[in-house]
Amino acid sequence: MQRRRLAAGIALAAAPAGIAAAAPIRQRVVYHVGDEGGPDHAHWRTALGNMRNHLDVVGDGLELVCLLNSTGIRLLLDAAGNPELGADVTALRRRGARFLVCGNSLRGQKVAREALLAVPEGDVVPAGVVELTRLQQEGFAYIRP
Fold it and tell me: CB neighbours (10 Å) of residue 12?
């Protein structure tokens, strides 16, 4: 990977004036949140901060998905009633991040999709682990903050 970047940089430096740089390398990543937030939502804040930092560095070249399952679905439940947490999630969504929610976890914990912070019906997946597998097979890097 380092050689490829170096070669691209050398090729760009040698290119005639007026030739634009190639589009940034596209990254596809799935952040997996499957735990409680902990005291003061520290775990969730770390995960959301990592996603924000990832977007800051890669920008438009990043396709970011956050998959919530198990007690991690409570991030969006708590965000619906916590303005600060809700603002963090909303800011990430505005930048293109998607938050997918495990349907099995919703049913198992008796949580209605409507109780979560603005989750469209299409963002509820049947089974979180199946969706994680599918995303990885499609080339998404797996991150569990």
Answer: 12
- Structure confidence at residue 25 (pLDDT): 59
pLDDT digits (tens, 9 = 90+) for 98-117: 999 999 999 999 999 999 99
pTM over 0.85: no
Question: What's the distance, Cα to Cα, between the start and end of the chain in Å?
Answer: 24
Closest to 142 (Cα-Cα) out of 89, 64, 55, 75: 64
Tell me phi and psi for residue 21, to 5 degrees.
-70, 150
Angle, alpha carbons 86-101-44 (nearest 5°): 45
Could you give the CA distance from residue 122 to residue 130 in angstroms, rounded to a whole number? 16
Contact in structure between 102 and 76 (CB atoms under 8 Å): no
